[in-house]
Amino acid sequence: MEQQRRRTTTRGRWAAIAVVTGAFLVLGPTTSLAALQTRTTRQPVALGSAEPASSIVTGVSYGPGPEQLLDLYLPSGRTGPFPVIVYAHSGGWIAGSRTNVPDFILRQVGRAGIAVASIDYRLVTTAPDGSFVNSFPVPDEDVDRAVRFVRAHAATWNLDPQRVLLAGASAGGHLAALAAAAPGEFVDPTLPADLIGVSPRVDGVLDFVGISDFTTFGAAGGWAPGLMTAFLDCPDVRPDRCDPAAITAASVATHLDASAPPAFLAYGTRDGLVPPETQAIPLAAAWAKARDVTGDTPLASSGVALVLADTEHNIDASTLDVAAMEAWIDTIIGPSASGPTGTFARSSNAIAPAAPHPRHRG
After folding, report:
1. 94 with 51: CB under 8 angstroms?
2. DSSP 3-state of 108
């Protein structure tokens, strides 16, 4: 009886939350904060001036599953090797596609000669009995594999394996931030030997309204409880019944330490789904503190940029402070093809495998 009740409840709430598809894509008129209350004026950027990609390689398999595909946007008129942004799409972990890449991300292909690898990952679905399939950490394992694959096959597309950024929006922002904060922690047990020896560490992460703290996310109401309980495979639509260990493991700040890479975080001040007060601002503070053990360095000087927007859970190139984002990108990986470029300390040797997190050794 209990199993049948849960099956019926799960199917009902799944039908409700499955209507959410492309609604989880980011931001609006921005407020850039070096300190948390300093308002700045956004400078508009003419996206039409960006040089288009010379080629798009579609449907590259980075793993054996039908969902483990990526599209690669390559620069034209440049010699390379090209830095690369690995992008994870939005969609609440239940929907979305690698074909949905924001203009302000694709603009980097022509502007700075940065390749973009937009990935699909396994989405949360339901089995015939109403149980969830592909819940945490399955999508995280796919992001880990994709980073390793892009780096391992960099020579195929003249990419620079030493300059890799992760980026994502909403659910994809969460996946990107968690992969950057905890490299090598969520690994597919079927990962082949040729990828195990490649590091999943990245040089920086761009997180656009990504969920970061599951201890507070469910309290946002609306879609949040359904999305959270699907992603974490919790009973019913009850965040309070989620496994505390899963809540901790899926929350980004719990993994941060001194090896965390630089981060660009952009959130909406009127976002009712991912409120900055419980998600963005605490995450930015924790990220900066992790990178600066003294805790005295200003936020931006720690390689952490926090941009708040006067908007809800939406973004496009006309509302995002694209200039601020591009300045951060250029500081971290730069457009040059040779030599170190970043002002901030880089987190790893791109070829060396990541060491297990201290809490998860063995």
Report:
1. no
2. helix
Euclidean distance between CA atoms 330 and 174, whole angstroms: 23
Judge whether residue 29 has pLDDT over 80.
Answer: no
Which tokens sit at 3? 């199993």
Count of residues in the chain: 362
CA distance 51 to 78: 11
3-state secondary structure of 229: helix
Residue 322 has pLDDT above 50, yes or no: yes
* pLDDT score for 8: 41
What's the gap between Cα 319 and its chain centre? 20
Q: Please tell me the distance from the alpha carbon of residue 122 to that of residue 99, in angstroms, as a whole number.
A: 15
The percentage of residues in the chain with a pLDDT greater than 70, rounded to a whole number, is 75
Instruction: Name the residue among 149, 213, 162 with its Cα closest to residue 341.
Output: 162
Residue 74 or residue 300, greater confidence: 74
**Structure tokens, 173:** 């922002």
Tokens representing 199?
A: 């590091």
Structural fold of domain 2-337: Rossmann fold (3.40.50)
Q: Between the CA of residue 361 and those of 190, 206, 276, what are the distances in Å?
A: 18, 27, 32
Q: Which residue has the higher pLDDT, 247 or 34?
A: 247
pLDDT at 178 (0 to 100)? 98
